[in-house]
Every structure is written in C-alpha cells, then in structure tokens.
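One record is given unchanged without comment:
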Amino acid sequence: MRVVYLHASKYGNGVRVAAEFEARMSQTGAEVEVHHIDRTQPSALPPADLYVFSSPGRMGKPIRRMRRFLDRVTLPAGTRYALLTTEAAPRTDEETGRTPTEEESAEVQRVRPIMNEILGAKGLVGVGEERVFVTGIKGPLEEGWEQKVGSFVEALPAV
C-alpha cells in the first residue's frame, strides 16, 4: 500500500505525529511519503492508495493554510483519505472544576468536521480519523500520543 501523508506544522507537533505515523505504517509494509503542505502543490499530489491529511487546530478550525490547501486539492472522486489532527486538549473550567463533555467540545472544536466537509464535497471518501491533543499552545503532545497514532494505523483499512 502506498500512503501520502500531508501535514501542516508550526511548532513541530505535527512533524512528530507525522514521523510516528510513518514509522508505524512502515512496520505494516506500507510505503509512506510525508510532505509538508508548504512544499507541496495540491494540484499535483503523488499517486497513492490513501492520503492522510493532518492539520493543527486554531480557534477550533484547521489552520487557514490547510483549508486553502484542501480547497485546491485535485484528486479523483472516490479517492480514499484519513485525518490525523493535532487539537487543543479540553481544559477544565477553573470555577467549576468540570471538564467539557465530548459533545460540548465538538461544538467548538470543528477541525475534523471542516476538513471532512471540504474533502467530501470533492467526492473523496473518508476511511478514518483521529486527533492527538496538544496540552499547550506550542505543546507538548498529550501523554500516550504514540499509542493513539498506533491505534489509528491499526484501524486503517488495507487498500
């Protein structure tokens, strides 16, 4: 299987996740190419059986560069893709001591839904998604993030 992993990373968290994904995926015998979107033309992506898109979240959305990149992607309808994002970890409310529920977080964290909306409108087919939490503005990544990436790789369908 040939996988092209396209990511955006400002503080290096996305680079770390991409490297872990590549290492885990290579163990399955897949051929993986990792590209930063700043050095890739969205209209000339290399051929692959699966494309993985990864964006950090900013203000609950994928960063603007990634949204623009996805808007310009030209892949045939039916192409399979997956999402592996880095998003802000839910914060405990200091006054109540309460952590937001998954549903409450989904109202403000729309990174993956927005990416799915853009790619789905092009006729691409999503086959998996996961997020790795970032515990501060610049990191670090959540504890156990490597296992999350491993589980994501294991859950991807063979193409």
